[in-house]
């Protein structure tokens, strides 16, 4: 069922693509094997763009330069990076590998592109903050793009937070801060799949990215040549329990789950996990139609239910 859901989910993302009258050449890093990179590749092809999958490793400067010279892309999408398997805990014990891709490699790509005046759209993360006194849970006060990361709980987030601060020095780079990506299929990397499979799950409201809504905006971001950091989530927050309740309602009526506290969760994890709300003012100024998370997630489960029925 998962494979069929995956194909149908990709088709759903493609079907909401806009009618672009221009076409660009995109070079996508992380599309050979990466979950999000492959979805971006398919979406760009559907929108009529020329897409090439990058072969060079981010940190190999000569290879990257040669590939840029050969492809001459209008825009580079960087969906490559070390994320850790089975999860980000892996990065705690593989710091050099994590730095090599997420900092040295990513900076290398931005720098090579800068020298050739090529726009880069980089997939970063919004998991660089945690709720604090100025941004309490459920306050509606989200972290803006200008605020410095305050989450130091995991090495993965640390590397992403460092690179996040360096974007300002590269006028050719847009860094998209994705969080807890939600897809229409039950791919293992989908946040929904992750939390339905946990033995115990925390229950905290968070900003999240519904890929169906957000990924199709990327070509227009390239067209506008946006730069800097951008909080790339749907407006609003949603909690783990709200998602699980919808999963139960739409997909599996027999589904049950058990909650536990953040303190209990910390005992089973090597690295901390970030919980936060991001401010989406900048995103909505550029794309006012991006739907609120609580509205959009209903549509997501309706689409998922349709696919489950078909299968
Ligand atoms: N999925 C999430 O929950 C999430 C949330 C927020 C942000 N993000 C960010 O979004 C991006 C894509 O995430 P994803 O879920 O699609 O990750 P993924 O499935 O783990 O894919 C990562 C891709 O990066 C490639 N890669 C790793 N190191 C590389 C290097 N040094 N040079 C070139 N390619 C390299 C991998 O290729 P190989 O297999 O060949 O190494 C793989 O294709 C990542 O930067 C991630 O940090 C993801």
From TrEMBL:
Alphabetized Gene3D superfamilies for the sequence: NAD(P)-binding Rossmann-like Domain
Gene Ontology biological process terms in this record: S-adenosylmethionine biosynthetic process
InterPro entries according to UniProt: dTDP_dehydrorham_reduct (IPR005913), Epimerase_deHydtase (IPR001509), NAD(P)-bd_dom_sf (IPR036291)
GO CC term, one of those recorded: methionine adenosyltransferase complex
Pathway in which the depicted protein is active: Carbohydrate biosynthesis; dTDP-L-rhamnose biosynthesis
Keyword annotations from UniProtKB, A to Z: NADP, Oxidoreductase
Principal EC category: oxidoreductase
Any Pfam family matching the protein: Epimerase
Family affiliation: Belongs to the dTDP-4-dehydrorhamnose reductase family.
Protein name: dTDP-4-dehydrorhamnose reductase
């Amino acid at each position: 069922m998962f494979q069929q859901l995956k194909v149908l989910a990709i088709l759903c993302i493609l079907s909401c693509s806009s009618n672009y009258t221009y076409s660009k050449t995109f070079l996508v890093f992380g599309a050979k094997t990466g979950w999000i990179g492959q979805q971006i590749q398919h979406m760009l092809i559907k929108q009529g763009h020329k897409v090439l999958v990058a072969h060079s490793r981010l940190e190999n400067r000569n290879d990257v330069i040669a590939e840029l010279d050969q492809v001459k892309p209008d825009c580079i999408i960087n969906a490559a990076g070390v994320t850790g398997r089975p999860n980000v805990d892996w990065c705690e014990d593989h710091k050099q590998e994590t730095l090599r891709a997420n900092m040295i490699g990513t900076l290398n790509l931005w720098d090579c592109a800068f020298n050739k005046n090529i726009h880069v759209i980089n997939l970063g993360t919004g998991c660089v903050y945690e709720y604090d006194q100025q941004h309490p849970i459920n306050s509606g006060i989200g972290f803006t793009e200008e605020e410095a990361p305050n989450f130091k709980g995991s090495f993965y987030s640390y590397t992403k937070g460092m690179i996040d601060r360096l974007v300002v020095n590269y006028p050719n780079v847009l860094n998209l801060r994705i969080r807890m990506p939600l897809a229409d299929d039950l791919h293992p990397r989908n946040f929904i799949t992750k939390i339905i499979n946990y033995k115990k799950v925390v229950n905290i409201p968070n900003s999240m990215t519904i890929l169906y809504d957000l990924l199709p905006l990327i070509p227009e971001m390239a067209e506008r040549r946006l730069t800097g950091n951008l909080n790339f989530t749907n407006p609003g927050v949603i909690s783990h329990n709200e998602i699980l309740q919808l999963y139960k309602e739409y997909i599996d009526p027999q589904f049950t789950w058990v909650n536990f506290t953040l303190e209990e969760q910390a005992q089973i994890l090597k690295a901390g996990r970030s919980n936060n709300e991001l401010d989406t003012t900048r995103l909505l100024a550029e794309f006012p139609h991006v739907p609120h998370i609580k509205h959009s997630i209903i549509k997501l489960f309706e689409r998922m239910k349709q696919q489950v029925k078909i299968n």
